[in-house]
Amino acid sequence: MAKTVLTTSTGAPVADDNNSISVGARGPLTFDNHYLFEKLAHFNRERLPERVVHARGTGAYGTFTVTKSLKDFTIADFLQNIGQQTEVFVRFSTVGGGQDSSDYARDPRGFAVKFYTKEGNWDMVGNNTPVFFLNDPIKFPDFIHSQKKDARTNLPNPANAFEFWASNPQSLHQMTILMSDRGIPLSYRHMHGFSSHTLSFYNAKGERYWVKWHFKTNQGIKTLTGEEAAKMPAYGAQQDLVDAIDRGDFPSWRVEVQIMTEAQAQTYKVNPFDLTKIWPHKDFPLIGIGKLELNRNVNNYFAETEQVSFAPSNFVPGIAASPDKMLQARLLAYQDAARYRIGANVNQIPVNAARCPVNHYQRDGAFAGMGCPVGHGAGGPSFVNAAATVNASNFYPNDRTDQGAPAPNPHVATPAMPVLEDAWIGYHDQSDEDYYTQAGDLFRLMSDDQKRQLFNNIAGGLSQADESIQERMYMQFVKADPAYAEGVRAAVIAINK
């Protein structure tokens, strides 16, 4: 078998990759070490900025298969016919820790799915919980700062988290889930996924429906206690996923949705766009629509998993946003973060590239015109900058649309989003919302053992906070359920004895 010749990045053969050029055996190096300089310069630039959140994660490719048509609710091409398959890339992650953190932190898990549809990529950027800590994005940087390492010591400080939660009752529901027995999944295969946000469908008649997505694991829910998690290797969840797929044990999830009409949303007892709230299943039953399966590992972790970019703003015709305030902010923040981390042409990187033709008038920036083949379909993605094919018409409108220059398609327009009549623009205080009922409902569903774990998990961090913070948390627990407060207080006292 013929040997493969080592080359420089521009394709020139390399004569020696073990020794630099020097003035004699013991002399200094010379400036004609161009290959050495290439290696060092590239090495200096090998890392991307770490994701501010969801830094530690792993991913894999797979398929989404439709089991129930949604053509009555949406024009989304990939949801029309039973049996349709769409390629996906899924990334799982922890939220607060850096790349050097553990897969087994008590932390929500990111659950992001990129659907490579025939009409572009749709990103479902969710978590393994149906709610979140906040319903107003202005608090998000502060919340994340409270979860990160202490600014002074650069060490974990649970008291900071409780100091934030004590002043933000909207976090109680999610915090109860996080501190419960489901707070640390055994693996990414053994947890559910949720859109968490309310999204929308719209059909060919221009009718809009509000929707929440659910991904229910077929492997069963499996979790760890804090003590068990401490004994696990930091990379255990990532290895579990890679090993399972390598041996052909492909993990899968049942895909279900909840659907609410616009009329129902106007009168429903819970704000359907509040990310701290669920839609009770008795009012809005789960509808099974498909199956998600992961069946192929990445070939290069950095090129694919590290460079993959998910953005809630990546919609396709038939799927759109909602008035969810947290979602509205993410429509900007995620694309902005990707352009900062990777570059203006992040969507030309193979793992992010659409599997359908791409025609636009965007120009320039790092890696412009890359259009790399990705090997995922016949011919790979088609990147066409209009300027390259139609007399350098690099703007719109132009006089060349009849010659093939791209033009908008009004038939895929999103219906107008309803808003409150005579609504006033301003700061709207949401502190009077009910943040306690659903947290209390969840608490009352727990077994005695689950409640014991909840009390102890909360007490481990809350005991490190000062007394005023503890008392403010107890007040929140009382409003959810008096037994909730009593149990946590007793657990804190036991630790402080």
Beta content comes to 15-25%
CATH homologous superfamily caption of the largest domain = Catalase core domain
User: What is the C-level CATH assignment of the largest domain?
Assistant: Mainly Beta
Find the structural class using helix and strand composition.
alpha+beta
Describe the structure.
The protein is α+β, with helices and mostly antiparallel strands and 497 residues long. It folds into four domains: 1-46, Cytochrome C Oxidase, Chain J (Irregular); 57-354, Catalase core domain (Catalase HpII,  Chain A, domain 1, Beta Barrel); 356-368 and 381-407, no CATH class; 437-496, no CATH class. It contains 14 helices and twelve strands. The strands form two sheets. Strands 1, 2, 3, 4, 5, 6, 7, 8, 9 and 10 form a ten-stranded antiparallel beta sheet that branches. A two-stranded parallel sheet has the order 11-12. A hairpin with a 5-residue loop joins strand 6 (199-202) and strand 7. The protein starts with 33 loop residues before the first helix and ends with a helix.
